Amino acid sequence: MKPIGLHNYFIYILTNKSKKVLYIGVTNDVKRRIYEHELDANNNKETFAGKYNCIYLIYWERFTYIDNAIAREKQLKGWNRSKKEKLINELNPEWRFLNNEI
Questions:
Q1: pLDDT of residue 92
Q2: Structural domain tally of the chain?
Q3: What is the pTM assigned to this prediction?
Q4: Residue 5, by phi and psi: left (phi above 0), alpha (psi -120 to 50) or beta?
Q5: Domain assignment present for 38
Q6: What is the dihedral of CA 20, 67, 33, 13, to 10 degrees?
């Protein structure tokens, strides 16, 4: 039996097609969450990701505990654009869309 809180959680960074906007989020299911962002982008555009068509995955990290994932999300959201770009470039220098690789 898994200890309480021991699961897979992810922080992820999405961008739009022109790669000008970054969106950072946390989830326990990256594919499902991207699908939800895509639905919003194609319909209501009620969220930041939907409004700016941030539906392309360019970076993600996995965590065992939700509190660690949330702390990392908050940390990244506090960074300036340049620092976020450096992080993305370390693992995805071409900024390939990773949606089909998760």
A1: 98
A2: 1
A3: 0.91
A4: left
A5: yes
A6: 20
